[in-house]
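does this look right to u?? phosphoric acid mono(formamide)ester version
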Amino acid sequence: MLKNKDLLGLKDLSESEISLILDTALSMKKVLKSGEKTTNDLKGKTVATLFYENSTRTRTSFEIAAKYMGANISSIAVQNSSVQKGESLIDTGKTLDALLTDVIVIRHSISGAPHLLAKNVSASVINAGDGTNEHPTQALLDMLTIKEKFGKLKGLKIVLTGDIKHSRVARSNIFGLKKMGADVSIAAPCTLLPCDIGKMIRVYSSAIEAVKDADVIIGLRIQLERQKKGLYPSLKEFNMFYGITEELVAAANKNCIVMHPGPINRGVEISSDVADSENSKILSQVTNGIAVRMAILKLLNKNG
Ligand code: CP
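got this back:
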């Protein structure tokens, strides 16, 4: 069982809770591979998606996951909702409670917004990305993708490269992968690193040095919407030193896989050759997103 009614971040999940989610996701993959793709786990339940920021993968896969499990889905278009008339996040949440919503999936530009919502509603709240804090379901689907390839997480050398400072995906992956016993390190220019990150993880200023013996390289999107200008000389230079190129992949282990949460900026964080190569798991990550979100919806429902 999961300890809490909500899934807000991997910082607060135990190793056994993460293992439970990954094992449940593996069984959900079997359901997805079967002809029907459906379960009745959420029959009669209502799942609302409340996205204050844009999304393709996360929102769609939550909605597909809920649909495959028999739930009613309410997709709130924040741009056309009463948020535009000044309704607060708490009042929107209480309204969704009053509409008998069982699960609220929220994405917000402010770190901590899902935590505030969770304290004020009886529905389960799932964090689908909050500011620069966490994106737990992305990290869980990343872990599932790695586990599928290598059969384990413990002891694998995993390198995250790029914009660590603004990346909620990086934070969730660092919390989660370390709990699962992976050997995690990061490569970034110092302007794209959070303060004091070196106290919790190995930091490289050179990506090519970082990926020596790496089993997994995870690229991160340059978060132009969250950062000031002037953190690196140009996108071309960023690509040259921290982008995932064929040269970078050649410096890692022979069986190394390459991942990216998407959306990808080809030629910036990752070259097209690598994104479309055999090493790339980018589209498998998207598919695994459905299985992981089905698993989380199932496990939170049991807490309900
Ligand atoms: N990885 C991810 O969060 O993608 P979306 O922004 O498309 O949901």
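The longest strand covers residues 124-130. idk if thats expected tbh
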